[in-house]
Amino acid sequence: MASIQIIILITLLCQRWCDAGAAVNPNQDAIKAVGNLTKLFVQIDDVSANLTLNSDESYSLSIHAHPQPVAFLHAKQTWGALRGLESFSQLIDATYDGFFIQETKIVDYPRFKYRGVMLDSARHYLTLDVILQNLDAMSYNKFNVFHWHIVDDQSFPFVSLTYPQLSQHGSYTPRHVYTPDDVQMVIEYARDRGIRVIVEFDTPGHSSSWRSIPNFLTPCYSKNGVPNGQFGPINPILNSTYTILEDFFREIKKRFPDQYVHLGGDEVNFSCWQSNPDIQNFMTQHGFGDHYELLEQYYEHNLVTIMEKIGLRYIIWQDVVDNNVKVDPNTVVQVWKTSPSYKAELAKVTKMNLQTILSSCWYLNYIGYGRDWERFYRCDPQDFKGTQQQKNLVIGGEACIWGEYVDSTNLMERFWPRASAVSERLWSSAKVTNVDAALPRIDHHRCYQLIRRGLRAQPINGYSFCQAEYNVVMNHLDRDEL
């Protein structure tokens, strides 16, 4: 990242406070400030390091009152400097008398290297502005992965240059798409905030929106052996299927810089495969009997072979390993089910020596009255029976919000600051578990890091207030006319 970009990001991160200046208190009991803090020195050892799973996000931050107020931030990589700048912003406190910051020294680093947020833009289209605003919120909460569930059964808004008919016939309307320029904007906007973009194309199920490619989906048959006009999962028995997939994912590798792609693999409905006579014959020829999970294994094996061929690593939903598909040792398994126990699943997957991320506890599209964020806060990705070596294979977790009842009108306030509870769990020490202590901290974060920055973030407590409440900009009405 060029130095000019770093300067711009510093400006963005401190835009709430920089114009005012902050007075330094030498300790928490001091009443009078000792002077104005006007300088923050930033030292980054390596500004050229790429953003990857193993990027170094550690930093040290010190604020001194004597001999004159000054602050120092040191990070090994740019990504650590971004986290330190966010922490610096959060240290500034506002009162009716002005802005203050305590003299302090911090050495900080994340507990987990994968701290993700998943958005679903297929069931309801999410506008580009809302996606970008959510990336802002992620950076304020030190999330570092945007898992983009970009297509599903319902729609295919991703504009492919290799197969343009996918979005032409699979999107809700020609306006409900993400063009190559849109996608590139999201990737660059995310990277400038230390966030990786991992795109998901879920197959062989959840693939109805791929129907514009001839012979790609499986024709379903009625009980009398006649095609019923419906189509099921991707057809796994045709060589052309894998040619299409290879061409498509070669494009994905060119357009998304991250070394990982999410391949999905969950909730494959076998009924259409079971009805298709060509697939029945294929099953017999390959000795699969009536075990259609073996056909899924056949498909997934071919798919991951393609990934290895083109040089992409991959994340999969837990269903793939549950169905005994042999995967590459570098595979990351996303545990999402709550039944059977996610703790048992974590133990099983890590015993296979596979890296895993947890999202079972953190489906934020499920809402409950009251302080449901406490449940998210109490969930720990390493809380399962296993060796320390197994627990080290849990590389993080992900807060997910599925789009059946979420679109651009309600995404931000439903997700934030509930997701802040997840971010603290994934960043902070495992010893930080006190929910009562977290409440005022997250409530303060809501007011000063989210609402004050213009984000719609819902209350997390039964009663509270913010000094600067969120307000709607009524740009379509003249208040004098009301």
UniProtKB/TrEMBL annotation:
Keyword Glycoprotein applies: yes
Keywords annotated in UniProt: Glycoprotein, Glycosidase, Hydrolase, Signal
Residue ranges constituting the Glycoside hydrolase family 20 catalytic domain according to the UniProt record: 112-429
Gene Ontology MF annotations: beta-N-acetylhexosaminidase activity
Domain of life: Eukaryota
Active site residues according to the UniProt entry: E267 (proton donor)
Family matches, as Gene3D superfamilies: Chitobiase/beta-hexosaminidase domain 2-like (3.30.379.10), Glycosidases (3.20.20.80)
Signal peptide interval: 1-22
Domain Beta-hexosaminidase eukaryotic type N-terminal: 32-91
Protein name as catalogued: Beta-hexosaminidase
Organism: Trichoplax adhaerens
